[in-house]
Design a protein that fits this description.
- This protein has helices spanning about 5-25, 35-45, 55-70, 80-95, 100-120, 125-205, 210-240, 240-245, 260-270, 290-310, 340-345, 350-360, and strands at about 275-280, 315-320, 325-330, 360-370, 370-380.
- The protein has about 375 residues and is an alpha+beta fold.
- It has 3 domains: about 5-120, no CATH class; about 160-245; about 260-380, Histidine kinase-like ATPase, C-terminal domain (Heat Shock Protein 90, 2-Layer Sandwich), CATH 3.30.565.10.
- It has a 5-stranded mixed sheet with strand order 1-2-3-5-4, with helices on one face.
- Strand 4 and strand 5 (about 370-380) form a beta hairpin.
């Protein structure tokens, strides 16, 4: 249920003051000025119902107009009463359905026409038609804009919720992809370790005095094979439906890309239409496979964004082996799409941030001159040099 608003109180006070001053200070043609002022005061009081009960407010003001038009009452219609009636009609047009507001508007016009006929002022009919039509039309316009604003707010809220869902889905998909790739890396490493242990065990077969060592290595080899089997089962869970449908072989034994493969990546991007200059600063060092994979994926995703949002541009990839961290920089020299719009449409930066956060790193992305820059810092894990 609607309540009395501050604007309704303001209208009531304004019409009260206006009605009293109009009767007191102007030459109102009325045989009963007190009654005329009373009509204005009642119309002012009816404004308190303008929002809560618009039909009741309109009925009161229309009845007052009809009474004021009857010559036998000795009262006359005032400007305050007229304004109050039009405000009530506009409120009905704004707050009520067409099935209610249209008959109400027609009824109000009829009352004004009948009142003008009683008073013998035919020109009042024209004024009444124009005034009532304008008030009702203004109310309907406000109603339409109010409905449109509500729809836009609802649509905006829906878009925000949809974008949040897309971001969450992108994070989930990227985490699954990261888990799958890290699983592949671990499976590959364990497979190599198992093969090496098996090679050492076979060399000990010729030494009769190394039974204990050979048994230990046999146990390690068996555990390694079991671990690879379990990892391959886990890979089956992490593989996407498309990979399952294609029947592709498990990738557990395939080595994942490393930072040394960035030259090949740059060559492929160049062939796709973006000139790439690769710079390496500092001496390359041996890093954990997961960290190497993350660095490669960061550069790959950043160059993919350049291909999508700035075709034909030039990009610079700078890889720096600092004392305690790996620093990656990808910057292009011009965008055909605004970066803010591109980031809203695409979720590539979300994947970069997820990967870097996994290793406790930081990502900076934003406008740089006429282009866009992505900078990632990946701290070296303890023992990465070993």
């Amino acid at each position: 249920m609607r309540t009395v608003r501050a604007v309704d109180v303001a209208f009531a006070v304004l019409l009260t003051v206006t009605g009293v001053l109009e009767v007191a200070l102007t030459d109102v043609p009325a045989g009963w000025p007190v009654g005329t002022a009373g009509l204005a005061l009642i119309a002012a009081a009816a404004m308190l119902l303008r929002t809560a009960q618009p039909l009741v407010c309109l009925a009161i003001t229309v009845a007052l107009v009809l009474v004021a038009h009857i010559p036998q009452t000795g009262m006359t219609i005032t400007g305050a009463l007229m304004v109050g009636c039009l405000l009530a009609l506009a409120s009905v047009g704004r707050l009520c359905r067409d099935t209610v507001s249209i008959p109400s508007a027609l009824g109000t016009v009829v009352v004004f026409v009948v009142g003008a006929a009683f008073a013998g002022r035919p020109w009042d009919v024209v004024v009444a038609l124009i005034a009532c039509g304008a008030a009702w039309a203004a109310g309907r316009l406000l109603r339409r804009e109010s409905i449109r604003s509500a729809e836009l707010r609802s649509l905006a809220a829906e878009l925000v919720a949809q974008r949040e869902m897309q971001a969450l889905e992108a994070v989930r998909a990227e985490r699954v992809r990261m888990a799958r790739e890290l699983h592949d890396t671990v499976a590959h490493t364990v497979s190599v370790m198992t093969l090496q242990v098996g090679g050492v065990r076979r060399r000990l077969d010729d030494h009769a005095t190394h039974h204990a060592e050979r048994d230990v290595l046999q146990d390690v080899e068996n555990l390694g094979r079991e671990a690879v089997t379990e990892l391959q089962r886990m890979l089956g869970i992490l593989r996407s439906p498309e990979e399952e449908a294609s029947g592709g072989p498990a990738r557990a034994l395939y080595p994942q890309p490393r930072l040394a493969d960035l030259e090949q990546l740059a060559a492929r991007v160049c062939a796709a239409g973006v000139r790439v200059r690769l710079e390496v600063e500092g001496a390359a060092r041996q890093l954990p496979p997961g960290l190497e994979l993350t660095g490669y994926r960061v550069v790959q995703e950043a160059l993919t964004n350049v291909l999508k949002h700035s075709p034909g541009a030039a990009a610079r990839v700078h890889v720096s082996y600092a004392e305690e961290s790996l620093e990656l920089l990808v910057q292009d020299n011009g965008r055909t799409v605004d970066p803010a719009v591109a980031e809203r449409k695409g979720l590539g930066l979300t994947g970069i941030r997820e990967r870097v956060a996994l290793y406790g790193g930081q990502v900076e992305a934003g406008r740089a001159g006429n282009g866009f820059r992505v900078r990632a810092t990946l701290p070296f894990a303890t023992g990465s040099d070993q």
